[in-house]
Design a protein that fits this description.
Blueprint lengths: L1 H5 L6 H11 L5 E4 L7 E4 L5 H18 L6 E3 L8 E3 L10 H20 L6
Antiparallel strand pairs: 1-2, 3-4
Length: 122
């Protein structure tokens, strides 16, 4: 396979079948389309694409919560946000700048309303 790729040739069908058989040992794999050279076809044992997507989300969640940066994982404190993020810069507070902006706009609006009503700058 590697030699065929390096020489820009179509691999032998037998070689493609051997690689694909080994790839099927994974939960998700890519196969080469026999006869078309190096065209890749994604494969997975679950026929329902929604369940496959759910499985991918779950696997990424596991990696997020058990990976090397698990101690930096935070829940976004923005009201209504259900996302988690890895706190990389020390000052990072929210999952995205959009959440941070919504919090700042809400805080600004509260202060403006408070001033209009004669209240304190809370």
């Amino acid at each position: 396979m590697g030699e065929a790729r390096a020489r820009q040739r179509i691999p032998e069908i037998r070689d493609v079948q051997t690689v694909n058989a080994a790839a099927r040992l994974a939960a998700r794999w890519e196969e080469l389309d026999a006869g078309s050279g190096f065209a890749v076809v994604p494969r997975w044992p679950e026929p329902d694409p929604l369940l496959v997507a759910l499985g991918e989300v779950a696997a990424q969640g596991i990696r997020l919560f058990t990976g090397e940066d698990w101690e930096k994982v935070r829940a976004c404190p923005a009201p209504g946000c259900v996302l988690y993020f890895v706190k990389s810069p020390v000052r990072r507070e929210w999952c995205t700048t959009a959440c941070g902006n919504r919090v700042r706009v809400a805080r600004h609006s509260r202060r403006a309303r408070s001033r209009e009503c004669g209240g304190d700058d809370a």
